[in-house]
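Support reply, case 0932

Customer input (verbatim):
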Amino acid sequence: MKSTRARKPGRPRTASKPKPKAKLKARPKPKARKGPAAAKAARSRGRLLLVEDHDPTRHALLRLLVSRKFDVSGAASIAEAWALVAKEKFDFLVSDIGLPDGDGYLLMRELQDRFGLKGIALTGFDMEDDAKLSKEAGFSAHLTKPIQIRILDETLASLGL
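Our regenerated output:
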């Protein structure tokens, strides 16, 4: 049976052959997953509780710490921090000292006593006594605001995070 389609001049008539199907390579089987929490934990450098009442500072630090591969939860007050601690387990505290409903010194003491947490104090207080109070409360380091990213990175690294 002849084709009813017009042929371009100079082109021979050819029978159309079906094109061979490409061979698909076998895909390796995906590794068994242990759930989203396990996958997230494997990628994380640690679970941090960030307590800072100044919203722009808290949001900036949260983004910075997440970009450094930390799993971070933020709180604007001691009450919010305790609510998070009741629901989640944390490896480390990064906290402002002057908070609207208390101070970071007491929060650090209680978290260290109950859970053995270490912490970094973030504060606008830059007196020698302030650093001493931070150490006495259980903070491993005392950083003065505005925080320098390089100093924060070095401090986290020196604490094994």
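We compared this against your earlier run and they match. Two observations from our side: Residues 22-41 have pLDDT under 50 and may be disordered. The radius of gyration is 29 Å. Please reopen the case if you see a mismatch on your end.
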